[in-house]
User: Fold these one by one.
Assistant:
Number 1:
Amino acid sequence: MPASSAISSGIFTSLGVPPANPGGHGESVGLPRCFALLSISLGGPTSYDGVSSGGRHMQAGVTQSTTQGNPSPPSLQLSQPGFWRFRWTVQSGTRTLSIMVMQSANTSPYPSLTVKANSAIGVNSDVTGTSPGGTSWVKIGPVTVSPTSEGVLWVELHNNLNLFTFTVPGQTVGSPCYFGQIIAT
């Protein structure tokens, strides 16, 4: 059996899918028939407003900006309304989180940061901080949580401004949002 067939066979067998015709008459052992692995999701997606127990596994419009940043580039750019999330590992006690943010239009609603509840570690409600506005780098936070034990909290960075974004020759029209330095204590 060729090495690639053995590897493929082993992968699919470990997924619980038997090979097409193992050792059969005239057929090679390889990928199973009528089986296609289109994608893998390690948890279901959430809706636009975050209602679900699963984590977001794809977010369109999230890129790295190499021209914006605080204190210096790069930064996380959210080019359209939505959010990007990450996990924050915390110890018990009072913890704070701040982030530098810039929105290119001084228009409400402003960017926000949300630390999601995790009752397993004593954080029983979401805590949200919102940008004070402006078109330069400003600080969201600090937001404060007091976990009673060690654990993990989801942190969401939101671009809340719903302006239509499109590109014209030489410039982008709309309102991307940039997230820079994160300060955790």
Note: The two ends are 56 Å apart (CA to CA).
Number 2:
Amino acid sequence: MIFFDSPEAEKLKKLISDKKLYLSKLDSNKFAFQQTQKEIIFLSEILPIVLSKSNLVHSEIAKYSVKAFETALQYHCNDVLIAFHIDDNYSDKPIVGIAYPKLLEQFGKPGAMNLIIDNMDGNGAKVSPFNLPLNELM
């Protein structure tokens, strides 16, 4: 499956990128640095909303995720694992992104968990798990 972001989402992503670049160039003006940092955080928080409302794929993923989360709550689950297939066209080593907020927690803390991806797809290709740096993506 190949998908494209809406023009609104693309503009917002570009704005965030531009502000991050501007932020890296601010040296002496502490107030401007803090204000730009606040703007980046705000824009990063609304980007998922824009994506879910302006792109059919994102909208369907949001609906499916909420449905899975609510179902997990009804069954008194402690965690829910949701996987979305993105693209059938990959090289000999497919990459599986892992988004888990407590992934970097040390064992012994409540909620810390080691997630393991089986090392093979349906055609026998070895899978490369990748921990997604979510704070850097948005």
Note: Residues 90-132 form one domain.
